Amino acid sequence: MPPGSKSITNRALLLAALCPHPVTLTDALFSDDSRIMVDALRALGFTVEANSGARTLRVSGQENGLRAARTEIFTGLAGTAARFLTALCAAAPQGVYVVDGTARMRERPMRGVLAALHELGAEVRCLGAEGHLPVEIHARGLRGGRVAVDAQESSQFLSAVLMAAPLARAPLELATVGSVRLPFVQLTARMMEQFGQPAVDQPEPGRFRVQAPHPYRLAGDTYAVEPDASAASYLLALPLVTGGRLTLAGLRPAGESLQGDIRFTEVLRAVGVKFTRTPEGLVAQWDRESGRAGVTADFGPFSDTFLTLAALTPLLSGPTRITGIAHTRKQETDRVAGAAAELRRLGQQVIETEDSLEVHPQPLRPDVEIETYGDHRFAMSFGILGCHDLHRDGRPWLAIKDPGVCAKTFPAFFDLLARLHAGSH
Asked: Parallel, antiparallel, or unpaired for β 47-51 and 70-74?
């Protein structure tokens, strides 16, 4: 079973902190990103009890949250924590909050969320480069009304403002600027509804209405976190590489899952993977009759999974073109440039544009060490490629530099691969 969803865990932690009663998250993710969110909420005065063995996180002590005169928060390289907590602190009725992150997080964009919060009356000052962390927030609440949110660089900007919106003094109407990747925004809106908010109204495309002030409240005291669809993408692709079949317990198919990244299964179907829903979970199996077809796919709506496909393109029977990925140049690293560089290192012919990669498969070059750029998705994507039996005798042929970066979202990834390998003989 994949770990709990990072996107759902970090949203649920924040929404639980805004409830007036204790909330326990079950099947929660335990990783660097969720630990950063937990530590930040504790710094803000909330009580968070973590049980990694049971995979539960219990949030309580909401009456003590956001009460300190001054709080400093470190968000590491976690974009969700940086954007969501900045909006939360701006919506607080009082206090001074300093939000900072790693050197790379200081380079990642924040301008869209900061501009929207400023428009809603928040006093937010950049302590370094304009539009980036660190920021200092002098909280006095949000006034409500209409606001434009430029979330072209990251849909997290819009999700952050949406989750903070019910704390405002008056209803909000949010208008998006330019093209926004909506699956994670829709995830946010559906989770807000699960936590007691009226359905976020969309009177027309690109506009969202949120009732405020309106308290959060979860019916019951537990919230079940779905398995992470982004993390599952690596495992769902594994049968394409090794043959056989794999069952992922608890993973919900498209139409049932909150997560847009489950749509990666549509791409895998086109490549040659069959999926079957069973009582045990979602079964992935390579369709040998279909082979391993090259594809053209727009990853804009589920871009966290594009590296999974990119890493496997050397195994496909024809060219593959991946589009809709320009914004991933501003994530943990420049993922487009990094993918092109590692595929060329493996002997592949790659055409790179600002928004796309086109890979023409060539014979794989063995004895290559993959650079991970401090990015968990490089380690896991190329880790799946490394499961390919290049020499047809089981000998290793691919090395992953710094596999520990998986701790960001999937700490047990390589241990799980080892167990799957051992169990397949």
From this structure: unpaired
* 293-318 residue pLDDT tens: 999 999 999 999 999 999 999 999 99
Segment (H or E) for 205: none
Instruction: Tell me the two tokens of residue 135.
Output: 């920021």
Q: Name residue 228's amino acid.
A: D
d(CA 355, CA 269) in angstroms, rounded, equals 23
Q: Angle at which helices 376-385 and 335-345 pack, to 10 degrees?
A: 30
Where on the phi/psi map is residue 61: left (φ > 0), alpha (ψ -120 to 50), or beta? left
Question: How far is it, in rounded angstroms, from Cα 159 to Cα 190?
Answer: 11
Query: Which residues, 6 or more positions from 256, have their beta carbon under 8 angstroms from its beta carbon?
Result: none
- The pLDDT mean for the chain works out to 95
Cis peptide before 314 (omega within 30 of 0): no
Structure tokens at 171: 């209803």
- For CA atoms 263, 338, 226, 221, the dihedral sign is negative
Q: Give residue 425's pLDDT.
A: 57
Report the topology of domain 6-209: UDP-n-acetylglucosamine1-carboxyvinyl-transferase; Chain (3.65.10)
Tell me how far CA of residue 339 lies from CA of 38, 205, 259, 288, 299, in angstroms. 31, 33, 24, 27, 14
Rg of the Cα trace of the chain? Answer: 22
pTM (two decimals) = 0.90
- How many CA atoms are closer than 13 Å to the CA of 240, on its beta-carbon side? 32
Q: Is the peptide bond before 213 cis (omega within 30 degrees of 0)?
A: yes
User: What percent of the chain stands above pLDDT 90?
Assistant: 89
φ/ψ (deg, to 5) at 207: -130, 140
Domain residue spans of the chain = 6-209, 229-423
Two tokens at 61?
């002590």
Which of 412, 409, 416 lies closest to 31, judged by CA? 409
Strand intervals (E) in 194-269: 207-210, 222-224, 245-248
Residue 311 half-sphere exposure toward CB, CA atoms < 13 A: 29
On whether the 229-423 domain is CATH 3.40.50.1240, my answer is no
Place of tokens 């089981």: 394
Q: Do domains 6-209 and 229-423 have the same CATH topology?
A: yes
Q: How far apart are CA 281 and CA 278, in angstroms?
A: 5
User: Catalytic residue numbers?
Assistant: 304
